[in-house]
Design the sequence.
């Protein structure tokens, strides 16, 4: 998804990898050594020569539920409304991650929210995020849960 405005004369686009699903401890063990799903920042100025500029990842140390099974930890989806350089990402057991890509070579996290797991579940599974025109953030958990947030700046 392209950003609305060029940065430094370059057309910038974002992509997000979706995390694989680990159903049990054995599958989680098979994932070891593989990177989690992440956010990619790309230069798409020339569509015939797209270049990856950077990626943004969340460390397993940044969520108490990063290795809970069953569940996923890494990236899932970002909000589909582009406004400026702020990107609101659903990060499964990592909750909501707010990433500023104003410097496409060095995206930085400027906020986060990790909900509690739904009753009877091992981890939250933040699944979708939507940001309205008043900058309210609507976040859905795939099992149960709906949070409405504001990003204090």
Sequence:
């Amino acid at each position: 998804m392209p950003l609305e405005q060029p940065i430094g004369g370059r057309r910038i686009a974002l992509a997000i990898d979706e995390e694989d699903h680990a159903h049990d401890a054995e599958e989680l063990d098979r994932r070891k050594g593989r990177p989690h799903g992440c956010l990619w920042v790309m230069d798409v100025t020339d569509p015939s020569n797209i270049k990856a500029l950077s990626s943004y990842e969340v460390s397993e140390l940044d969520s108490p539920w990063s290795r809970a099974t069953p569940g996923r930890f890494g990236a899932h989806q970002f909000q589909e409304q582009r406004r400026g350089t702020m990107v609101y990402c659903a990060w499964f057991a990592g909750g909501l991650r707010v990433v500023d890509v104003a410097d496409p070579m060095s995206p930085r996290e400027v906020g986060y929210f990790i909900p509690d797991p739904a009753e009877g579940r091992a981890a939250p599974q933040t699944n979708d995020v939507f940001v309205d025109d008043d900058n309210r953030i609507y976040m859905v958990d795939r099992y149960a849960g709906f949070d409405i947030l504001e990003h204090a700046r």
